[in-house]
Amino acid sequence: MIDQAYVLEALKAVQDPELGKSIVDLGMVHDVAVEGGVVRFTLALTTLACPLRERMMDDARQVLLGHAGIEDVQITLREMTPQEKERIWPKQQAQAQPGGTAAHLNQVDRVIAVMSGKGGVGKSSVAAMLATSLQRQGKQVGVLDADITGPSIPKMFGLHGAPPMGPVGILPAETETGIRVMSINLLLPSEDEAVIWRGPLISGAIRQFWGDVLWGKLDALVVDLPPGTSDASLTVMQSIPLNGILLVTSPQDLAGMVVRKAARMAGHLNVPIVGLVENMSAVICPKCGERIEVFGPSQAAGVAMQLGAPLLAQIPLDPELALRCDAGEVEQYRSVLFDTLAADVARRLPAQRSVPIFT
Ligand code: ADP
Q: How does pLDDT run across 341-351, given as a tens digit for each residue?
């Protein structure tokens, strides 16, 4: 028999994707009525402008219509009262929370930072593809673009415009496949605006991206670090708790120096380097399949050995990847190499996390 209790029980399967909890447990479902095969209820949202409202309504309809005896679902929307919101975000708790107002609502399982010795080796492309492959493998993924001075992540995912503001923080932008993205580029009046910031400002912005952005429940957050193993990347790494670092190099990189610096940083923070990716390692001739090492022979195996970390992938130059990145379609690029890399990284990331120094 389908009654109010039955409907509430069924709706426990529907989550608020931002908060990572069921809409019933969050007190969002009200006025449930059942008449014949028709179920009606009111969905109270934290804000009527909630960008995920259609998704939650669709999920609720789908769940209920999956039960025999329910033929129609009618949902009325309203905004939560201040008291109802207070129940979700108790004021004192929000204020007492170190690391930002949204931090206590976020459940981020693993955080991986992508680092390179210098700019232009494909660090952001690898970060974007790592996120894309992990998302394809069924994980809920976020990308925190910490490359404050040269943010390229939004462009690769075709994201423009300001991210929506939620009641307790900034909501990340969402890509076509549902990857949540935050970048300084989304907050600037113009995408081309140069950001010339010094260390403390950078760490301030990053801390906000970590603590004031409502990431919700994430299986993995990929952090695109600033290029180089200089102070900027160290500052970022010291501002976010990390499970591991993925190092990206190209055959042209000054490998020895990169390795020493990367190893020093990782040691300083007590974060393991989970692996090395050599990008742009060769060109594969489209006609005969010959592998041409345009930048000379690969040093990756030696670099990995010095690092004491595995060489997880050697990615050739592929014009399609460059085109997709430029066109904002990185999610449509497919490559077994990146899929294998993502699975490897997910498997190797330790559960332990670094403790941020700048809190
Ligand atoms: P970084 O973040 O290290 O500065 P990017 O990821 O922005 O580097 O890459 C620099 C340029 O190289 C971009 O135009 C990108 O599309 C291109 N690129 C990166 N990796 C590859 C690859 N394997 N094949 C072809 N183009 C690539």
A: 999 999 999 98
